[in-house]
């Protein structure tokens, strides 16, 4: 139980002007989709927020054609400096409307307002600012000779950071001179549709950004469309593999940002209270719906009991509940399907013999919820040590030597991120060198910045997003 109670401090919803239904955003206008409309709900209350169009193959075709025309007639002829002006304008509008975006994101996704307000939306704006700066300097970004756009890019994003993933995708694509057809996830389409309004407000030429809503089949239609030059996908490893198979032998390029099973490694010389905060942030931030989440805690055996004790004491104070309450630490699970996956995997953890603990907090009666959970006594063969749970669930393993920590950390099909907690700089460098992970945090976790590249090894995907490296997949070079 929390050591003391806070009075409710809900953020007002009135800043968000929800329409009852939304169309697709094609060629600068909202149009009805040909498919069966679907509903987006608030996972915290199961309240229907709005009805959203489903894009059929024909709608995706219209979007790709609009993107091609905009590319040929307008966007590819525009100077980098002029493209940059549009990106700066979008970035500033996102800042001006940040509160509206944050509230809508928390409503549609279930994440705590303090995260959408302080992380998702400011970072989304920062990605537009950062990439705006590159638009007229591509020749100086060490991308190779004569960097230029591919043409039309198809982008498919997940539900865990809807607006932030949109920014990761759209900002570098536009900065490098491509036009876009983007599909948000079916449970969280609303901030992407609000972003469509921002494109109109910024007077972005019609067709430069097109947003089509729908589920897997709509994504598949983007992947399969012959008019797409390059694909960018973030989501499950299963769908990523299907995309790689679908485009094999075609001229299409792709970047894939897939799952993870990161090790957060705590040595006996680490500042323990600081490490505990890093462990909590690593796996309970965004309900653990984070591809780079620190879902495996590897703790040195000599301090394992102490870390476990302090961690559980800290987790007792986490506030789980209304995403719009400014004091909430952990919000709702994004969907019933995701909750079912978390339940199935945690049940497997228990039946395979790991010891289960949760913080016992009260959960709301409606919506999708899961208590912050810790498994101790986990071995490497347990499913909860191997598979991505994508929920507020930590698996604790122990080690004795740095070599053993490295071997265990790398014993996963994934390789997206890792964390190291130790006082010794030399050990940080040695470990970072040995770990097969795209991002390695030292004495911190889950820190993101538009200037720094992000991406994986092995089944976590290929290609980098963010930083100068994040521009590379969006350009071709040479004669
Ligand atoms: P998903 O991979 O099905 O969804 C991601 C996006 O891909 C969504 O926009 C979806 O509509 C689209 N999609 C689905 N099938 C497609 C297809 N055949 N062709 C093209 N696009 C398609 O992920 P899902 O089912 O929502 O989550 C399952 C698991 O995936 C989670 O439990 C988690 O472990 C992992 N995941 C990882 C993410 C990451 O950031 N790396 C994000 C979301 C999920
Ligand atoms: Mg929703």
Automatic annotation (TrEMBL):
GO terms for molecular function: oxidoreductase activity, acting on the aldehyde or oxo group of donors, NAD or NADP as acceptor. The active site is at residue 257. InterPro entries: Ald_DH/histidinol_DH, Ald_DH_C, Ald_DH_CS_GLU, Ald_DH_N, Aldehyde_DH_dom. Residues 31-477 form the Aldehyde dehydrogenase domain. It comes from the Bacteria. The keyword Protease does not apply. The keyword Oxidoreductase applies. Keywords: Oxidoreductase. Belongs to the aldehyde dehydrogenase family. This is Betaine-aldehyde dehydrogenase.
